[in-house]
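#onboarding

Welcome to the new folks! Below is a worked example of what a typical request in this channel looks like: someone posts a single protein sequence, and someone else replies with the predicted structure as tokens. Don't worry about understanding the tokens yet, we'll cover that in week two.

Example request:
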Amino acid sequence: MARGRSAGYEDQRDLILQQAARLFAEQGYGGASMNAVAQACGLSKPALYHYFRDKYALLLNITEGHVTRLQAQFDAVAQMELAPEPRLRELIRRFVAEYAQARYAHRVLVEDVKFLQPEDWERVRAIERSVVDGFAQTVEALWPQVGTARMAKPTTMLLFGMINWMFTWFRPDGAMDYDAMAPIVADLFCGGVAAVKPPQGKPAKRRGRIRVVPTGAPP
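Example response:
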């Protein structure tokens, strides 16, 4: 009879993916090794292979898992049946929050997706395209003239440009955290700089720092 999985199997698997994402983000997919992942998780290398057959399996699970979670966030907002602007604001809030807790996985998606095999690359990109298309439809619903000018997709990509790369410069241990930043992104996108409002209801934290990190350097 085949042995069943232990009660902590999925928790251990998630921990491995988190540590692998951190190492890939800091060292690059090519620079990180299975030995390093095993050490970061407090496992032997044979024990690590019990969960993932090789480094490529880690990469695939990190990237596909990340975009699948983003798709799930989009679907959850769609089910709320909000008007266009509240829907867009809720999407921005959720995506900023998702990136906050998955910043390493997001960096791996941005920088290491090129190492995926063609069929895996296409599957991950298809999920990404679905999410972008959903955002573009929301943008067009809020500003029909953007859709008329066939600018919904480029406008949406400008929005993603704001939130996708936040991890390269934003420090959540500074004056503002991600919860405070999300409405600022929404205000800026929906109404421009004049519409941006200071965070409300949060105690002041120590002065933060904003530091531009060159692409490819660890956050």
